[in-house]
Amino acid sequence: METKILYIDEKNIDKSVIEEAGAVIRHGGLVAFPTETVYGLGANALDGAAVKKIFEAKGRPQDNPLIVHISDFDELAPLVAEVPEIARKLMDRFWPGPMTIIFKKSLIIPDETSAGLESVGVRMPSNLVARALIKAAGVPVAAPSANISGRPSPTEVGSCIEDLSGKVDIIIGGEKCEVGVESSIIDVTDYPPCILRPGGVTLEMFRTVDENIYIDPSILNKSGADFKPKAPGMKYRHYAPKAPVRIVQGEPEKVIALINEMVQNYINEGKRVGIIATDETKDRYENGIVVSLGSRSDMDRITRNLFETLRSFDDKDVSLILSEAFEEKGKGIAVMNRLKKAAGFDIIKA
Ligand code: AMP
Ligand code: MG
After folding, report:
1. 310 alpha carbon – ligand 1 mean position (Å)
2. Residues 175-196: pLDDT tens digits?
3. Closest ligand 1 atom number to CA of residue 40
4. DSSP notation for 319-349
């Protein structure tokens, strides 16, 4: 398949591009597009055959449901069986934005979209290109991240092209994604609501709406063999660059010393190592291919840079990637969740 790549300026949206891409989605095709979280790969959420193409293009496991994207509040009602009061409060506060809500689904959601579950995840993005596209499609848009399954999600169009060129009808190129990790997912089918995936809307922010909101314990810790995930996506290895990732956690000085020592051992064996560092530490590493995510005082920036940094090591021929750890509060919870999944929960205490 030949993939058309169309660039768009969020501040001056070209209507003809949006109309063309919207028609492709409406008629059962696939369009990759920018959102504020990561790039999404969209299809008509109400068309099971179209949704199936997403799974094929990504190589995504069939039992991993998709999030349905809407462009306005009034598009929610037909998709869900009920809207609990707490969901209304959350929507008022965080939509449009990086929050997905899990509802009991209505009958119009095909099994392909919900992967056979009785629930459906819905999100209204804030990115104007994304919303214009959904509006032009005239249908709700099922969209997972626009990457080959298992790889870090794309936050720049180049990564999207790398993974999906030749497999989808259109890729819309926009700006680098503002948040840089996937949406926070909150399940309101039970009370109190449970956070199934940390993201741009943090636990602290959720608790200003209802202090009983809690994080699913499996987000922070490695789960056992008998683990039954509430979000099917929780059980898959994710965000993985080609080389294995290990996280080094502890006091900063000890972390730097241990990383330097480990890198030296690899170099002695003629191997290259990547280091995910911060502005505060990047000059302290003697060897290795060092990439800084940004300053620890700016967790927004660190979050935004994480996935492209993980991807950047794929063409650097490294045998291992060592990453510093981050404090698990605010956006640090989302960053550590992605890093731990990339590392398969391989954490070394310095
Ligand atoms: P992605 O679109 O790649 O960001 O993945 C979507 C994530 O949302 C996966 O982790 C899914 O398991 C999760 N998800 C989507 N729909 C549901 C649902 N109905 N219930 C629980 N988790 C869901
Ligand atoms: Mg994904």
Report:
1. 22
2. 999 999 999 999 999 999 999 9
3. 2
4. SEEEEE---SSTTHHHHHHHHHHHTTT-EEE
Q: Report the predicted TM-score, pTM, of the whole model to 2 decimal places.
A: 0.95
Instruction: Evaluate: CB of 232 within 6 angstroms of ligand 1.
Output: yes
Q: Which of helix, strand or coil describes residue 189?
A: coil
List domains and CATH numbers for the chain. 4-220 (3.90.870.10), 245-349 (3.40.50.11030)
Torsion of CA 174, 304, 340, 294, to 10 degrees: 140
CA 30 to chain CA mean position, Å:
19
Q: Write the pLDDT tens digit of every residue in 273-297.
A: 999 999 999 999 999 999 999 999 9
Percent of the chain past pLDDT 90, that is, above it, reads 90
* Burial profile 245-283: b = 16 or more Cβ within 10 angstroms, e = fewer: bbbbbbeeeebbebbbebbeebeeeeebbbbbbbeebee
**pLDDT score, position 25:** 98
Question: In angstroms, rounded to a whole number, what is the distance separating the alpha carbons of residues 177 and 65?
Answer: 23
- Taking a 5 Å cut-off on Cβ, the residues next to ion ligand 2 are 144-145
Model confidence at 8: pLDDT above 90: yes
